[in-house]
Automatic annotation (TrEMBL):
InterPro entries: EmrB-like, MFS, MFS_dom, MFS_trans_sf. It holds the Pfam family MFS_1. This is MFS transporter. The chain crosses the membrane at residues 27-45, 57-76, 82-104, 116-138, 144-166, 178-198, 204-220, 241-261, 273-294, 306-323, 335-359, 371-394, 414-436. It is found in: Cell membrane. NCBIfam families: efflux_EmrB.
Length: 463
């Protein structure tokens, strides 16, 4: 629901603009208000989960997100919608930041944890892809209000199921890490940084400098504080450092592809909202097929780093194929091979990367590590989208000024962005090969563990 909400809005933006009277620049804040709150609070929310209990933070975030969705759906003015979207971002950050931490503590056995992370990866990818399809269907069949109101039954059901199915977990206590100054510094730095990125694609200016200064102040604070919000010891792990860096680069390349690929389908190929959503479904299907089980089995046999490198290589191949799409591209021959490569690559990469990023996290730091993983993904997506969209727009504008036809100018601009995205993924491959280390624990016989789990469940049912 939370990942879907980041993409479902895109298709409905023209209808929202016409109904609420947004200006062109003001309309961007329907997206930006959510991104700023979401990206800025992930790290703090993850640490709060460790301190006061991850289930408590998750439920609070879920309730706030659902209530904010109701406010979004009921909005009758631009100001009300922007404020409600900001609250959605706060709730989304609280719920998302602790999810991986809950998974690794609830499923300590390697086989169970691999399956759980695989399902998590599939749901995230499916939400991103289906959001485009759902946004088009709901906006065309009903109206834009329903892209938010559809969250209400899902949010209520998730809240009830969480209370019934997830065990209560005591946090380590606020006294173990209540670094108020550190929390203020990092939250302000991240929010200001995301704001600078979404408002200024180059990420420059005094706001960007202030964000960097606040971040450096946070690092100094964490090095000196008796009870830091983000213990710097977590970065002694090469896997934590390397996996988060790899994820930031990979998401930067892929997120830009989804956004610009959507524009290519719409403005060059003439697809409507429903066709675009259907066009991206192979990505979700491929990620789902590989994430739920198959990726974990490959990791158990060949190692997480090997599977990650294979996945990143396929993502690189998909982006390179996108750099060759023609003006009159056909879906089956020009788009589908690239989308399948991206889907298979994502299905292999996301679960293994999350496993590597969480591999050295202790039980007390699981929420923090989870928040860090989500923060790097969010920042990577914001940076990637801003940079790639800026480069694509600049290239297209130059070609139009030279008299090149609009479809050709747009396509050439998209090709440049896809090429830069491929370069980012190339750097990610180098980091994965040189910085990330194989998990040293002996690989479990994952097939045997799953068979034993199935046998135990059968015995329980017979009992």
């Amino acid at each position: 629901m939370i990942i879907l909400d980041q993409t479902i809005v895109n298709v409905a933006l023209p209808a929202i603009q016409a109904d609420l009277g947004f200006s062109q620049s003001g309309l961007a804040w329907v997206i930006n208000a959510y991104l700023i709150a979401f990206g800025g609070l992930l790290l703090l929310a993850g640490r709060l989960g460790d301190l006061v209990g991850r289930k408590r933070v998750f439920l609070t975030g879920l309730a706030l997100f659902t209530a904010a969705s109701l406010l979004c759906g009921a909005s009758q003015s631009a100001e009300m919608l922007i404020a409600a979207r900001f609250l959605q971002g706060v709730g989304g950050a609280m719920a998302t930041a602790v999810t991986l931490g809950m998974i690794v503590t609830m499923f300590p056995k390697p086989a169970e944890q691999a399956r759980a992370i695989g399902v998590f990866s599939f749901v995230a990818a499916a939400g991103a892809s289906i959001g485009l399809l759902a946004g088009g269907v709901l906006t065309q069949a009903l109206n834009w209000h329903w892209i938010f109101l559809v969250n209400l039954p899902i949010g209520v059901a998730a809240f009830v199921l969480t209370i019934r199915l997830i065990d209560n977990e005591r946090g380590i206590g606020l006294g173990k890490g209540a670094d108020v100054l550190g929390a203020i510094l990092i939250t302000a730095a991240l929010m200001l940084g995301v704001y600078t990125i979404v408002e200024s694609p180059a990420g420059s200016g005094w706001l960007g400098a202030l964000s960097i200064a606040l971040f450096l102040g946070f690092v100094v604070r964490q090095a000196r504080a008796r009870k830091p919000l983000l213990p710097l010891r977590i970065f002694r792990s090469r896997n934590v450092l390397g996996a988060n860096a790899v994820q930031m680069l990979m998401v930067a390349g892929m997120f830009g592809m989804f956004f610009l690929g959507t524009l290519y389908m719409e403005k060059v190929l003439g697809y409507d909202a429903l066709q675009i959503g259907l066009g991206f479904l192979p990505v979700a299907i491929a990620i789902g097929t590989l994430s739920v089980g198959f990726s974990a089995r490959l990791s158990a046999r060949f190692g997480e780093r090997t599977v990650l490198l294979a996945g990143l290589t396929l993502i690189l191949a998909g982006l390179l194929l996108f750099t060759q799409t023609p003006i009159d591209g056909r879906y089956l021959t020009d788009l589908l091979p690239a989308l399948v490569a991206l889907g298979v690559g994502g299905g292999l990469s996301f679960p293994t990367m999350m496993t590597l990023a969480m591999s050295d996290a202790t039980r007390d730091d699981a929420g923090l590590a989870s928040g860090l993983v989500n923060t790097t993904a969010q920042v990577g997506g914001a940076v990637g989208l801003a940079v790639l969209a800026s480069l694509s727009t600049a290239r297209t504008t130059d070609l139009l000024a030279e008299g090149v036809a609009a479809p050709a100018a747009l396509t050439d601009g998209f090709h440049l962005a896809f090429g830069v995205g491929a370069a980012l993924v190339t750097v990610a491959i180098i980091l994965a090969a040189t910085v990330v280390r194989p998990i040293t624990a002996p690989a479990p016989d994952i097939d045997a563990e799953w068979e034993q789990d199935d046998a135990n469940q059968s015995l329980a049912r017979i009992g």
